[in-house]
Design a protein that fits this description.
CATH architecture of the largest domain: Up-down Bundle
Order of helices and strands: HHHHHHEEEEEEEEHHHHH
Structural class: alpha+beta
Pfam families: Acyl-CoA_dh_1 (PF00441), Acyl-CoA_dh_M (PF02770), Acyl-CoA_dh_N (PF02771)
Distance between the termini: 46 Å
Strand order of the largest sheet: 1-4-5-8
Family: Belongs to the acyl-CoA dehydrogenase family.
Largest sheet: 4 strands, mixed
Number of strands: 8
Enzyme class: oxidoreductase
Radius of gyration: 21 Å
EC number: 1.-.-.-
Strand content: 5-15%
Helix content: 40-55%
Number of helices: 11
Domain Acyl-CoA dehydrogenase/oxidase C-terminal: 262-401
Number of domains: 3
Bound molecules: flavin-adenine dinucleotide
CATH class of the largest domain: Mainly Alpha
């Protein structure tokens, strides 16, 4: 069994790692509950979900049953109102057991928060009770035509007598074909707003929806395949926000939650891989030298370097989550934290590649065999590719550093 980050060894002479280093203060109980859920419910289905490319529906249902169907939205709207630190603690913990479940849940939570922020009272009342019982929500933003520039879409949904006629090709949709509803980013051609981005809520059974299977290197349970929306008639009451102007919610809701939640997943995946490598390095003993793998100094240095890298990203994660919580409390825009979020996501997604690779090396040929360590490496590799990709984010960070507008000409 993989060692958990919450368990701190208490052997005499062994340095105790302070609990605040692994978990923001005040969230210890939540972290403990999330690890229990991970051990009991998520871990058991994680390997088969990966091998069979099966959507982790039962695991997501258990997450909802535990009360985490709408963690970030206010209590009066049916949410837990636990804030962004709690969201990060849960995502980091879940991903140590089943990264696919954790990422589907992050996308779900981001969608639910978008519905809350941009939606009307009626829309909240209609859809939030369902997500508390296990309905799954998803974001259909990226299009093949514009790749990772998901804020620029070529699809359109012109108005007709009954609402909007949506025609959109989407390249990757996590929980695609499995979700109960989607927030689809498209454009409204006749918008009065300079930003003609528009969100439409599409329910799973509407006519004209096609989803394709997802065959990928990692996160294989995610059902992140392409979707097509062909002449889907969306009623007026399912427009989330205005006819245009949704770029505001991209910057203030979708990006902050996605960048934070996904970074938490990369931290959790890295920690899960390192825990598995530590376990294996302690267990494997060479008969000729009499030493365990962990007995070699070079191996211990690899473990130390990896843990330091994980904690550098974890520190950024919880510092940024706290800042977002602060913005929310003070009624400030979450976009105030975009710059730290870009750095956080870039670092966490780079870090997980380095750490999972080191974990595999420490685990030897056994780590290369089908199993937990190689799976963490494959799952974590998605981070740098998910939009905004690390190349795009480094460009925005670099432009900011030299006082050049970040969005021009991208
Ligand atoms: C597992 C997974 C799940 C996903 N889930 C969702 C989802 O739920 N919803 C959703 O909407 N999308 C989702 N995506 C899509 C994701 O957010 C990106 O849009 C997608 O990964 C980009 O891939 P692409 O092949 O279109 O890349 P491209 O954009 O074609 O990029 C190819 C390469 O060019 C680089 N590049 C692109 N633009 C620039 C630039 N301006 N400057 C410098 N370099 C650049 C990229 O970094 C990359 O290295 C998911 C993707 C993955 C892998």
């Amino acid at each position: 069994m993989v060692q958990s980050t919450v368990a701190v060894q208490e052997k005499s002479g062994v340095m105790n790692i302070p609990s605040w280093w692994n978990c923001p203060e005040g969230f210890e109980e939540l972290q403990k509950l999330a690890h229990l859920l991970g051990e009991k419910e998520l871990l058991q289905r994680s390997i088969s979900s990966d091998l069979e490319g099966r959507f982790p529906r039962e695991s997501l249902k258990e997450i909802a049953n535990a009360g985490y169907g709408a963690v970030t939205i206010p209590v009066e709207a049916g949410g837990l109102e636990q804030g962004f630190t709690a969201f990060s603690v849960l995502a980091e913990s879940f991903s140590q057991y089943c990264p696919s479940s954790a990422m589907c849940w992050v996308m779900h939570t981001t969608t639910v928060h978008t519905l809350y922020d941009a939606g009307t009272e009626e829309q909240r009342k209609k859809y939030i009770p369902g997500v508390l019982k296990g309905d799954i929500a998803a974001l259909a933003f990226s299009e093949p035509a514009t790749g990772g520039h998901f804020w620029n879409v070529v699809s359109e949904a012109p108005r007709n007598a009954n609402g909007y006629l949506l025609n959109a090709d989407k390249s990757f949709v996590t929980s695609g074909g499995e979700a109960d509803f989607y927030i689809v980013a498209t454009s409204f051609p006749d918008s009065d707003d300079k930003d003609n981005l528009m969100y439409l809520l599409v329910e799973k059974d509407q006519e004209g929806i096609e989803s394709s299977s997802f065959s990928a290197m990692g996160l294989r349970g995610n059902a992140s395949g392409p979707m097509k929306f062909k002449n889907v008639q969306v009623p007026f009451e399912n427009r989330i926000g205005g006819e245009g102007g949704a770029g505001y919610y991209n910057d203030n809701t979708v990006d902050p939650l996605f960048l934070l939640g996904s970074a938490a997943c990369w931290v959790g995946i890295a920690q899960g891989a390192l825990n598995a490598a530590i376990y294996s390095a302690k267990k494997k003993v060479h008969a000729d030298t009499g030493s365990s793998v962990a007995g070699y100094q070079v191996i211990r240095h690899e473990l130390a370097k990896s843990q330091i890298l994980i904690d550098s990203a974890r520190s950024m994660l919880y510092r940024t989550a706290k800042a977002l919580d602060g913005c929310q409390e003070k009624g400030l825009e979450l976009s105030e934290c975009l710059y730290p979020l870009w750095q956080l996501k870039t670092h966490a997604a780079d870090m997980v590649i380095t750490v999972t690779n080191a974990a595999l090396q420490v685990s030897g040929g056994r780590g290369y065999l089908t199993g937990q360590v190689e799976k963490f490496l494959r799952d974590g590799r998605a981070g740098a590719l998910m939009g905004p990709t690390n190349e795009v984010l480094r460009e925005w960070i670099g432009r900011t550093l030299i006082d050049v507008p970040w969005m021009d000409e991208v």
